[in-house]
Amino acid sequence: MPKGYTPTWMERQWFSLFEGRNEAVTFGIIAFAVHQAVYYGRYLPYLVCDFIPVMRRYKLQPDKDISDAQWWKCLRSLLVSQIFVQLPMMMFFLPAARLVGFDCGAPFPAWLRVVFQVSVFFVIEDFYHYWTHRLFHYGVFYKYIHKVHHEHTAPFGITAEYAHPLETAILGQGTIAGPLLFNHFIEQVHITTMLLWIAARLWQTVEAHCGYDFPWAMNHWLPFWAGASHHDYHHMAFVDNFASTFRWWDRIFRTDCRYQAYEARRVQKEKAE
């Protein structure tokens, strides 16, 4: 904290959470709480839509219904992974962040800086995810690791993190890579920016797995945003569309050709109806 600097109300509230407590454990609990709130909170509107008949017109695969058994199996698996794989990793994050030079003090970064950094993180994660995901579709990587995620050919919001623990750990490195590279080569990343980045990434991945293509979805007004229709095809066909957030890598390397043809037919069919 700079000499003579007076923390804002928000900064004081943040630091008060750590007073007299183990900081690593406290941050881990905060990160976990943010993760769970955003992940399941983002899914809630889609869950509600599942019970509203008029919303079925926006389903990408309306002929496929999720059974109660599948839903509960997914939730149980998620909670085990989140509590026993992700939570322990979060407990170690604050000490590791300090070790590599993350900013953990005051003042908090300006919002424009946060938005810029998070945007860069999205680009880096998307690049990492594209190539790692392609690798996961080969031989033993698919058979023993990635096949778990593809149990759901018609994904629904919370299937975003339904995966083998190794896949969770390996793909999770892409989420961490952006902040680490940015912090090392460009400028310091604040620990709170990391939390906001995790929240934004969760928001995006739940949307990508939601199973709905609403007219107001981001892919309809933000160029190259992948969205649910892009990733839903990947689950349905088991091929192509390997990127997580944007469409450009699939477009450049022509791993979206079959999707483009399928999507054109789907849209034409919707217009005819």
TrEMBL record:
Domain Fatty acid hydroxylase: from-to ranges: 120-255
Highest taxon, organism lineage: Eukaryota
GO biological process, one term: lipid biosynthetic process
Membrane found in the keyword field: yes
GO cellular component: membrane
Alphabetized UniProt keyword annotations: Membrane, Transmembrane, Transmembrane helix
Transmembrane segments annotated in the record for this chain: 78-98, 110-128
MF terms (GO), sorted A to Z: iron ion binding; oxidoreductase activity
Pfam families membership: FA_hydroxylase
Subcellular locations according to the entry: Membrane
InterPro entries per record: Fatty_acid_hydroxylase, Sterol_Desaturase_Related
Name of the protein: Fatty acid hydroxylase domain-containing protein
Organism: Coemansia reversa (strain ATCC 12441 / NRRL 1564)
